[in-house]
Amino acid sequence: MKTIEPLIFEKSVPGRRGYSLPKLDVPSQDVAALLPANQIRRKEPELPEVSEVEVVRHYTRLSQLNHGVDIGLYPLGSCTMKYNPKINEDVARLPGFAHIHPYQPEEISQGALQLMYEMEQYLAEIAGMDRVTLQPAAGAHGEFTGIMIIRAYHEHRGAKKTKVIVPDSAHGTNPATASMCGYQVVEVKSDERGGVDLEELKKVLDDQVAALMLTNPNTLGLFDENIHRIAQMVHEAGGLLYYDGANANATLGIARPGDMGFDVVHFNLHKTFGTPHGGGGPGSGPVGVKKDLIPFLPVPVVEFDGQKYWLNYDLPLSIGKVRSFYGNFGVVVKAYAYIRAHGGEGLRQVSEDAVLNANYVMRRLQKYYELPYDRTCKHEFVITSRWQKAKTGVKTLDIAKRLLDYGFHPPTIYFPLIVEEVLMIEPTETESRQTLDHFIEVMIQIAKEAEEDPEKVKTAPHTTVVGRLDETLAARKPNLRWKKQ
Amino acid sequence: MNYLPNTPEDRQEMLKAIGVSSVEELFRDLPEEVRLRRPLNLPNGLSELELARLMQGLAEKNGDLNHFTSFLGAGVYDRFIPSVVDHILSRAEFYTAYTPYQPEISQGVLQSIYEYQTMICELTGMDVSNASMYDGASALAEAGLMCATSTGRKKLVVSRLVHPEYRRVVATYARGVDLEIVEVGMRAGLTDLEDLKNKVDERTAGVLIQNPNFLGHLETVEEIEKITHGRGALFVVAADPISLGLLAAPGDYGADIVAGDGQSLGNPISFGGPHLGFLAVRERLVRRMPGRIVGATVDNRGQRGFVLTLTAREQHIRRERATSNICSNQALNALAATVYLSLLGKAGLKDVASQSLQKAHYAYAALERVEGFQPAFRAPFFQEFAIRTPVEPARVNEELLKHRIIGGYDLGRDYPELKNHLLLAFTEKRTKEEIDHLVARLEGML
What we know:
The complex is a heterodimer of chains A (485) and B (446).
Chain A (H helix, E strand, L loop, with lengths): L30 H4 L17 H13 L21 H7 L2 H4 L11 H18 L3 E3 L5 H18 L6 E5 L5 H8 L3 E5 L9 H7 L4 E6 L12 H10 L3 E6 L11 H4 L3 E4 L1 H4 L14 E3 L11 E4 L4 E4 L16 H37 L15 E4 L1 H7 L3 H10 L6 E2 L8 E4 L7 H20 L1 H5 L12 H6 L9
Parallel strand pairs in A: 2-3, 2-4, 4-5, 5-6
Antiparallel strand pairs in A: 1-7, 6-7, 8-9, 10-12, 11-12
Helix pairs in contact in A: 3-12, 5-12, 6-7, 12-15
Chain B lengths: L7 H11 L4 H4 L21 H13 L8 E2 L12 H7 L2 H4 L11 H18 L3 E2 L6 H16 L3 E5 L4 H13 L3 E5 L1 E2 L2 E2 L1 H7 L4 E8 L9 H10 L3 E6 L17 E5 L15 E5 L12 E5 L5 E5 L6 H4 L12 H38 L15 E5 L4 H10 L2 E2 L2 E2 L10 E5 L6 H13 L2
Parallel strand pairs in B: 1-14, 3-4, 3-7, 7-8, 8-9
Antiparallel strand pairs in B: 2-10, 5-6, 9-10, 11-12, 13-16, 15-16
Helix pairs in contact in B: 4-12, 6-12, 7-8, 12-14
């Protein structure tokens, strides 16, 4: 029986410890003689005092209060919660990757630099781009890097532009990124087919537009068929096209952002290339660019002179750095292994199966939940609970919570913002037909429960260790840390 | 090798259920001009055994810290990581989860972050910590942005003794929102107070320093605090979390925001990442803070539980008006830090800090006797210090490498006035024998 777990601080007993070091092997000097008095700590930090076994049990129990991909389906839309291959965990822990210093001499870092160099080339090929940086630590960080590159490009050409366009279906990171890069955000509406409304786009395009940020397939899971026309319009106005790679799992080896007309691309290695999400990170958000934008990449870039790999800091027009060192190298190692395991054919099969799985679930659910865009979807799709809400008052949140009782992680809910009571479902390619069938049956069952016993759904979850949590209280009276009584 | 469960028969059945005859039909909405009508030009896929061999081969081309003795620090440190840390990190319930959007089945990650936030507050002397940032550099950069939004001012004053890479990241973020950056010079290995006084004014949003600074020295923090607050600017300190086992908490000397890199707390160096950045602030700044924050609350059965909170600051709610675009944190690295600090406890952290301090001072004293390689400064330091070198540092490092020693950081890379200076780091892992060996090798070079 799982139960809630006290805080590690509440288990503390003075004098216990879970750690040992060798005895100091150099002569000990008086700390007061080494450090200025005003810099010596007076009050010890209140760290817990616990034994090793208590630490192990505490965090093992906490882990058991968590759902992960290894436990079951995790169809969180736009997050691509696919299976994370175990071998990749092993290889990233090899001492030759895990225990090397970023500043150690290049001659003893050749394997790491080679891996980075090849990874850049693989990603450039997959994206249809000319050069890639691995420095950004996450997707949003990649967006920041990409838009700063675009800004540097325009400024270098003497154009001080002021606006970035994002569709109303965009991830929140897109407008937030544009603001961080000093741009005013202009939202463009989606048309009734879920794509960018070309008439609306025409209205907002002018010579002040630095870029259009687009996810394709978009957050409705729909491929924007007008992408070439959109690219043409943006380019004619003097802007560039930014590809948010959150949904790249739909088109590996099938269509490349570079061929769609995009100038800058980021990938989320933790989504598309199978590295684990870690409970919220670490991710990795490499950015690829077309030739004209290479001079603005962050430094260093990895070069190969035919003999050895080396780090090149000499990019006078570079935007500088967005993160220390070379990014989340350990994540890059796992994604590199993922790409090497699959090869080109394997990656295409990944996308084909991802799209097949999504369409299968969508078609089987459409009798039971409203399908706002009745088109072939890509790797994800949206449905709504509007029918349920109108009839019995059961909302999307309730359906999500009821899914917990059946052992599934719910889909993304209430996003994208342009669809009311929406559920965004991304099954990924690593789920079997049987698992999908089970999920479908449960979704149908919940639709039935919503009619027959709506209270049961509205008060879900019933089987989890904690029930619905009071988020209003959490925000109104913030309790953000434990304090010693 | 792939990880796809569906067989050709499964696919056929599914296509039938969808009502199409081939997978190709599912891609018919893609215009022909964007289709890639050739295979991706990538190496062929590998079996697991082939992959393991390939990766092993690449890894072995690198000289790792199990086979070399390293005196490199400069922001990341070769520290001892107890076995328990990686065993906990390897729990798939933690590492195959995502951001805890559904708190009922994410209490493990949420509670561990709440514990992490508490520990960071305790170490830094701050009121609130977020759930972690990408790294120390971006944490400091976001701290700089916070200074601007909370004061309404547009100028950041940054000590040149802040890590050079951090300064470059701060500069990139500052350029994004058109903040001015003014750098303050050094004097005798410390931030030059006269220069600081001249540069901090009524337009200054924040003063950013690192303590111990990039040269390892302890800054004159009380004076810096007075100058900063005297002009109404915010005081931002980039701190080394291990040093805080021994050194005063920045909160005790008046910092408003504390940022830093948490690699030292149980995370392998890993060629520079993934690590975590930490960011902690005074209570009044919490609503300006970027990133995830976890709070305690109660559930509908009256039990304590944890949720992501104060989300109105964040990009998924606030979009272009968010405090930052940051979405993910470095949850697994923050978990490593939490487990590490739980194992260490009060005594362990103090021990790690003290041993680093003692070993560095032992080495300092030994090098004072080595003509040509003597320590360059007299300022108090924690675990790193600079030495002068009689020849180019690269040549010294080359020579040391022959003896399986990874030498120091060439300070001339970033500070023209410190040409022919090496920065050496000493952690609890370095033994007396290794330090004596380093000293002997340097002596032998003359």
